[in-house]
Amino acid sequence: MRYIKSFLLVMIPLTVTLTAGAQNTDTGKSSLKGYSIGTYINETGKPIRSDKIHMNSLHDDYGTKSDSRMEELDRQMEERKWATEQEAWDRACTLDSKAAYQKYAALYPTGYHRGDADRRIIDLEVEEVLNGEYDELPAMKCVAEDEDSPTSIIRIHNVTGYPLTVYYSGKDSKSIVIRPDGEGTVVLKNGFYRIAASVPDTRVRPFAGDGNLSGGRYETGFCIVYGK
């Protein structure tokens, strides 16, 4: 049994088993730990001849197992980077993707940076819409100015026939979901905003655009024009 264990250690690089061997001075024949060149030890520990082995399949099998082990090690190393809340937040910021911030929020739903994660998800959501195909955003109408107010109130009418999600990305990134044929109100700090809105139907392009809030009350409405 000791021979088999020793042999397995030196047989891992397959090229060694085919090219390396010590000359036996008594017989003049090549040998390696008592086995002839080309011999391979299978999983049962029994030696088999190379003429019964397809060497390409051995190489592929070894490479597949090696790749699988590396993938598992990579996965474990990645998971360690999320072990504490601060490490998870640092990792999310490094990756800077919706999936990363969503993972942070899922792991630490009451975490110190939860609000920051939610706001960054909204920013990335709006950015994604603006980088694709979209319809023009309905204009916001100021119905009551209040320049002394640091915030603006927006009333949104949803006549799309779908649940509507509206995202505001800017000084005070927020999102709101409005039921079909319903209304919703969002309060935002004054400033410039990039805005996107979508419904859960892939046939309907999202809305996107921008707007500036300077205090007071605003109104806007969303509808779908078919055949456009």
Overall CATH architecture of the largest domain: Sandwich
What string, H for helix and E for strand, traces the elements in order?
HHEEEEHHHHEEEEEEEEE
Based on helices, strands and strand pairing, what is the structural class?
alpha+beta
Q: For the record, what is the CATH homologous superfamily label of the largest domain? A: Carboxypeptidase-like, regulatory domain
Which strand order do you get reading across the main beta sheet? 5-12-11-8-9
Report the average pLDDT across residues. 80
Query: Level of helix content?
Result: 25-40%
- The structural domain count equals 3
Q: Give the N-to-C terminal Cα separation.
A: 78 Å
Q: Report the count of strand segments.
A: 13
Radius of gyration: 32 Å
Question: What would you note in describing this structure?
Answer:
This protein has 228 residues and is an alpha+beta fold. It has 3 domains: 2-74, no CATH class; 81-130, no CATH class; 136-222, Immunoglobulin-like (Sandwich). Helices cover 35% and strands 28% of the residues. It has helices at 2-11, 14-19, 55-80, 85-95, 98-107, 114-130, and strands at 22-23, 30-31, 40-41, 47-48, 135-136, 141-145, 151-158, 164-170, 174-178, 183-189, 191-198, 207-213, 216-222. Helix 4 packs antiparallel against helix 5 and helix 5 (98-107) runs antiparallel to helix 6 (114-130). The longest helix is centred in the N-terminal third of the chain and has 26 residues, at 55-80. The termini are far apart.
